[in-house]
């Protein structure tokens, strides 16, 4: 099993003819992803050859879905065009939309998130500013390298792209049901809690790794959710223990004010919910190995 993405997922790429879209579509195809077409209004009606496969290019997401049965879109669209591309996908009611783009204005993210809610949450948004989602051996929607780890029984949800890759590599001998990078912007679609809920319901996910970072209160809210609703073992890591107070670090969401949002405060909240928290990614991986050995 996996969450949100599986071997039956039919994927389209918004921005397939651009440099990033072409490059990562090639890698997704090599990973076994069933890409069925792309979207670029200016090149509608043409085909593009990627990874030895000829793919049709459509004018809109709605048209692509009608012609191919697509149920997933991955958006490689420049920041200034992302809002329009996302609204188009939401209006077409595509079930899953993965927004890779970095640098999307927070106002735009807030707008399209609210638009998705107003439309009845028919489209699950992952991102923006995220590496995407991979169910190893089944499908890969985004930019997570497919050869880091194979299929297994760990679920991974992470704010950080690079820490997603590191944790997958650290635990490659066990493997993953699904790894999902939710992004670290202040406004994102899918949250830690959404992923935790899905992993809890997935019969083939036996344990969960949750990676957070300083800033905001998402990890504290996730800790409260774990305490109430998650029965599977969870290990955590919070990036930013050495960050100076009051300074913005990396992701736009990582802003600390006072004690709220610090790595220590998040660690304590998670531990109070029964989550084992590592001080480094490697220590966190060791904690997960101990748990899996005892399952």
UniProtKB/TrEMBL annotation:
Where does this protein hold CoA?
A: 17-20, 43, 100-102
- Tell me which InterPro entries the record gives: Cit_synth/succinyl-CoA_lig_AS (IPR017440), Citrt_syn/SCS-alpha_CS (IPR033847), CoA-bd (IPR003781), CoA_lig_alpha (IPR005810), SUCC_ACL_C (IPR005811)
Q: Membrane spanning segments where?
A: none
Among Pfam families, the record links this protein to:
CoA_binding (PF02629), Ligase_CoA (PF00549)
Keyword annotations for this protein, in alphabetical order, are:
Ligase, Nucleotide-binding, Tricarboxylic acid cycle
Where, in this chain's numbering, is substrate bound? 165
What this protein catalyses is: GTP + succinate + CoA = succinyl-CoA + GDP + phosphate; succinate + ATP + CoA = succinyl-CoA + ADP + phosphate
**Residues forming the catalytic site:** 251
Name the enzyme's class. Answer: ligase
EC number in record: 6.2.1.5
Domain CoA-binding intervals = 4-104
The pathway to which it is assigned is: Carbohydrate metabolism; tricarboxylic acid cycle; succinate from succinyl-CoA (ligase route): step 1/1
Top-rank taxon, per record: Bacteria
Which interval of the chain is the signal sequence?
Answer: none
What GO annotations for molecular function exist for this entry? succinate-CoA ligase (ADP-forming) activity
Family assignment?
Belongs to the succinate/malate CoA ligase alpha subunit family.
Protein task: Succinyl-CoA synthetase functions in the citric acid cycle (TCA), coupling the hydrolysis of succinyl-CoA to the synthesis of either ATP or GTP and thus represents the only step of substrate-level phosphorylation in the TCA. The alpha subunit of the enzyme binds the substrates coenzyme A and phosphate, while succinate binding and nucleotide specificity is provided by the beta subunit.
Q: How does it assemble?
A: Heterotetramer of two alpha and two beta subunits.
Q: What is this protein called?
A: Succinate--CoA ligase [ADP-forming] subunit alpha
Q: Organism, per UniProt?
A: Pseudonocardia oceani
Q: What is the lineage of its organism?
A: Bacteria, Bacillati, Actinomycetota, Actinomycetes, Pseudonocardiales
């Amino acid at each position: 099993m996996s969450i949100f993405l599986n071997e039956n997922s039919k994927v389209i790429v918004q921005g397939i003819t651009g440099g990033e879209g072409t490059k990562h579509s090639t890698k997704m195809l090599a990973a076994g992803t069933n890409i069925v077409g792309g979207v670029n209004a200016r090149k509608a009606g043409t085909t593009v050859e990627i990874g030895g496969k000829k793919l049709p290019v459509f004018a809109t997401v709605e048209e692509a879905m009608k012609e191919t049965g697509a149920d997933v879109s991955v958006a490689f669209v420049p920041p200034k065009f992302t809002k329009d591309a996302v609204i188009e996908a939401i209006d077409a009611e595509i079930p899953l939309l993965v927004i890779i783009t970095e640098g999307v204005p927070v106002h735009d993210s807030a707008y399209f998130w609210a638009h998705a809610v107003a439309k009845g949450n028919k489209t699950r948004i992952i991102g923006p500013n995220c590496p995407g989602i991979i169910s190893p051996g089944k499908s890969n929607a985004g930019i997570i390298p497919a050869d880091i780890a194979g299929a297994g029984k760990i679920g991974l949800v992470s704010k950080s792209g690079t820490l997603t890759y590191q944790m997958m590599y650290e635990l490659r001998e066990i493997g993953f049901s699904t790894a999902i990078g939710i992004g670290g912007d202040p406004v994102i679609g899918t949250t830690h809690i959404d992923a935790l809920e899905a992993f809890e319901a997935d019969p083939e996910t036996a344990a969960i790794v949750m990676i957070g970072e300083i800033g905001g209160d998402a990890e504290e809210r996730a800790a409260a959710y774990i305490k109430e609703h998650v029965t599977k073992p969870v290990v955590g890591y919070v990036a930013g223990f050495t960050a100076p107070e009051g300074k913005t670090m990396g992701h736009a969401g990582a802003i600390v004010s006072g004690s709220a949002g610090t790595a220590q405060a998040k660690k304590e909240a998670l531990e109070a919910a029964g989550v084992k928290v590592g001080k480094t990614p490697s220590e966190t991986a060791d904690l997960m190995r101990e748990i899996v050995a005892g399952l």
